[in-house]
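Methods — Computational structure assignment.
A single polypeptide chain was analysed. Its primary sequence is given first, followed by the predicted tertiary structure written as C-alpha cells.
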Amino acid sequence: MSNFVETIKQFYSQGYKKVYDEGQPLEVARKKWSFHIHGLGVEPAAELDESSINSYIHTLRFDFNLELIWHTPEPRNATYTTNFGDYLVSDSMLRDDDLVPDRETIREWNDDLEYEILEDLEIDPRFLGIEDKINQLPDSVWESCRFYSKNISEQDWGNVYTLRITIENQDTLIIRTTTDGSDGWLEVFDSQGVYLAAARISENGDGIAWRPMHQIREYVLGERRYPPELE
C-alpha cells in the first residue's frame, strides 16, 4: 500500500467505530488533519435544478462522516475550524442544533467577504465549485458516478455526489453514495482520476470496510450487500 493510499484510508475512516482493510481490523490514528473541501464536482451548474443542489448540500452536511467530528469554532472569513482542519460553510448549510456560531454571526462573516452569494440559494459559489471546471472531471470519476447513479439514485434508494478534497496538500476526488438508511459506498481517486481506494459503510453507519473496487461494487450488484466483516 502506498503511503498516500494509507493516508486517505486513515482520513476517510475518522469517526467510524469499526474500521477494516481487506477484512482485517485497521487501527485509525486520531490526529489533526490538514484538509479542505473545495466544492462539489457535479454536472455543470446550469444543468442542476435547485432541488438537486439542495440535496447535495444536505448530504454533505449531514451524511458525510466528517460532519460527526465536533466543531471548535474560531471565525476566520466564514471558515469553521474543526479538529480536522478548515472548510467553508454558508448560512444555508446550518441547522439549529449544530455546535457552531449563530446564524447572524455567519451572515456577518459572509458580508465581510468579497464574493457574491447566490441570491436564490444563499450558497457560496466557491463552495459549490462553480468557478472550478467541474464539468471536466476525469473519465474514471464520471464512470464511478454513473455506476452508482444508475444502480442507486436512479432506483430511488439513495444519493450520489462527488467532492474534491485536498488532504495533506494532495487532491482527492471522491464518489460518496448514501442510502435512505445509514449505509453507503465510497470510491477515492487522485486528481488525475487514478483509482486509490474503495469502501463499504455498514448498515448502521458505524463501520467502514476497505476492499478493492470490484469487490465493493459487488455489494451493489450482487446478492450479498456487505463484506463479511460488516455483517
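Note: The chain has two domains: 3-33+134-230, 50-128.
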